[in-house]
Amino acid sequence: MQFKTVSRISFHGIEVPTSLFPDYWSTQKNQVSLEWPMPILLVVDICGSMDLDLNSSRTQILKGDKWFAFEAAFASEVFLSIMQAVESDYWVKLKVILLQLTENEIIINVLNNLVSEPA
């Protein structure tokens, strides 16, 4: 069984008609993409002080400092939640597998900074 990664993203309730997980052949210059070592279903509405740069037609999120900060914050939240939801031994094994499956430096840094407390 293969799972497909899917995303929907909006700013203050207004959807941006793009995917954060585009097929490699459809990715355009400066278009963002999340490269995760596992499938994920993402529905996020960005509010508050978090901001991302959009192209002029507001149909794509552009790479830049704001994107990299968002990607790191998002990865931290997801992996911290997983770490807190599972047993310490399971987290250690999962972390090793995830590190083996990714080349994404942001995810590698986030995973290396998360340390589970022994139960």
UniProtKB/TrEMBL annotation:
Protein name: VWA domain-containing protein
Organism whose genome encodes this protein: Methylophilus aquaticus
